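Table 4 source record.
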Amino acid sequence: MTIPLNDLRAHYLAHQQEIDAAVQRVLASGWYILGHEVQAFEAEFAAYCGAAGCVAVNSGTDALHLALRACGVGPGDEVITVAHTAVATVAAIRMTGATPVLVDIDPETYTLSPSALAEAITPATRAVIPVHLYGHPADMDAIRAVAKECFIIEDCAQAHGAHYKGRPVGSFGDLACYSFYPTKNLGALGDGGAVTGNDWDLLEKVRLLREYGWTPSARYVSQIEGVNSRLDEMQAAILRVRLRYLDEENETRRRLAALYNDLLPDALQKPAERPGCRHVYHLYVVQHPERERLRSRLAEQGIGAAVHYPVPVHRQPAYQHGEVRTHALPVTERAAREVLSLPMHSLLSEMQVRQIAKAVCAALD
């Protein structure tokens, strides 16, 4: 593609000297798992998120899984979330043995609908996972008001640095989960994830779970049944470099999104930014009934557009069984047919945005 959806190599090259130095520092240290770099990153990321603590793990999926387990979620429990999300959100619920309950989304922000949530809560509901999708915060005040008897675990995998009513996302639930997959706003050069929060007891449970239930004073003795989910020193060191530039890069994304908004035709539904919210545009997602024609025309011009997500989780073969419950999902179904992600990353140029917008206008003319 002349203009790809993202450009991961360019992001490495933009910080190559600092990243290479961080990697060399780890290689020379002789300590590669759960050492100084992980501890330093946990402290720095917790401070960035406005959280009391952070536990670094090996993926965003594991972050959700371990957060759910720390909250005592297991077989017989229900966990409410959305079907319009990366499948990891639902996979993590199934990993605990709990039943995912999938509800509809807000038609403008694509995040969990508080009214749909209210209709789905039952005495079996143990937790709710709002997904801050595409970089826009879910309506946390309304969600907390509805789910006040449940654990709230925020899925912040696409929303590093987003804000809701002046506070970072991740500071509204009992725990918050992040992915550092390379495409994220804060991306590693491999897999990675983290759980943040203000409840030290819950965070300590996550810390035990990530390494077989071992404690520092009784290594090799499992206090609880845990797993192996450790962020390695190399990725932690790289993330420490990337974290220093996150706010600056998010501001660039916001500036490019504003340019898209000005240039794209009104025939498209453009991303919303609700009052009191700070969207960080992990993806710039538009919506149009003739999505496939538009995507095809853009591909002819060498412009990489993609669909997030073409098949809602409840339509995927692995989740069409009795262990997943769904409510009415008309907004979700329409989004799956019509959404399209245009190129968006912090190294995209204004000239490229203008070229993309021109191609979109021509395709819809």
